[in-house]
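Input record (Table S2, row 319):
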Amino acid sequence: MKRIGVLTSGGDAPGMNAAIRSVTRAAIYNNLDVIGFRRGYEGLLEGDGIPLTVSSVGGIIHRGGTILRTARCDRFTTPEGVREGFQRLKAYDIDALVVIGGDGSFRGAYELHKLGFPVVGIPGTIDNDMAGTDCTIGFDTACNTALQCIQKLRDTASSHERLFIVEVMGRAAGFLALEAAVAAGAECVLVPEQPFDIEQLCKKLHYAKERGKTHSLIIVAEGVMPASELAHKLKDTASYDARIIVLGHIQRGGSPSSFDAVLASRLGGGAIEALLRGEYGTMVGRTSGKIVTNPIQVAWEEKKGLDADMMTLVDILGI
Ligand code: ADP
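Output record (adenosine-5'-diphosphate complex):
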């Protein structure tokens, strides 16, 4: 193996730059050249590759987003698109590709692997909805960003004795909502993985009020319903007057936390080690503190469930 490619794809996540830096420097340490493709699979198909060097990945470990930029590429979801990508990689004399992204990006990498091209995936998404790793790159930072926003809201909620609904990211997964809810001491959390009953929610808020609570916080993952719709339902069901806040893309930005910068650095190094060991078609992850590899399809074939004890904890602590 002489030369590897690296790209970031799908939704950006804080820590992706730290992963690019780590992949590049670990590869160069092992006498491998590195080509970075801009804008994910889109840039691969367009031949938008640039050499990455020790110095070109300097000064980026602390930066949010991704210097390689990211994109979604419909063409790559077709067999012709994947074959074209394969040819591009060959034309660049690239022996293996490191893909940093979510499970969609891993599916693309898996298609290349099925054609016989060596790939390794590094899980990067704020959603944390990938099996094969306890945490994805960006999740911890997004939780901290959400927490900081919610803590500011809590000040107003308590001063003005208000009910706030905070909508956080998570179309199909409630990891971010749940983590933020526990950390912020929210009274209720609504996640896509669990059905919810508006009557029950109103009862809970009512009991809390009866016990003397003057303000409450509800965290809702965007996949459950928009915060505005939930506010309407609360109004219609029990005349609750809730203020809403949608955190939106702010959750994807910012410098990575120390946890994410370390995770990204370890996974970047782990990806190169996996390639050198010939473990192709795999993903690297961190499980119980150790860097591990798994077949890349584990990321979406296995379901990473929400911690049921954490869900119960929100109810216990939110009384
Ligand atoms: P994420 O990686 O964050 O989950 P997406 O699901 O949008 O983001 O996927 C990112 C890109 O990965 C897509 O735009 C597409 O180019 C590629 N991709 C997703 N699914 C497949 C697939 N089944 N086959 C090939 N490429 C795919």
